Predict the structure of 3-hydroxybutyryl-CoA dehydratase.
Amino acid sequence: MLELQTLYFEDLKVGMSEVLTKHVSSSDVVGFAEVSGDRNPIHLSEHFAARTPFKTRIAHGLYTASLISAVLGTRLPGPGAIYLSQTLNFKAPVKIGDDVIVRVTVEELMERGKRARLSCACEVDGTIVLDGEALVKVPGRADGPPTERL
């Protein structure tokens, strides 16, 4: 997973981005089903999924979206960032065994309230499978180090 990186509001610049690549395993999907309670058989049963248009098991859409959260909470902006909102547009399925590339990019910085608007995209084999936009509150240097904010 990503190594923690702490960026303060003052460190951010429009155009900055971070990328995470995650291989989607069966155990990831089963674990997400356990945590979320979403046990839809399209995610868990190869027999069931074979009769769907996808022909195989697919990952939960919100599992894929959670990879965006991993980037926001660990790298850009990192520890101390607070999610305010997230839009999600699901464009294609993510299958077990896919490698998802997640890219988060700073699109706008709002001095008032120390907020950042970030574009978010997930792709598999060059195809966008999910995109959207996040709004986060970012700590400033005057707020102290992340350990003092806990």
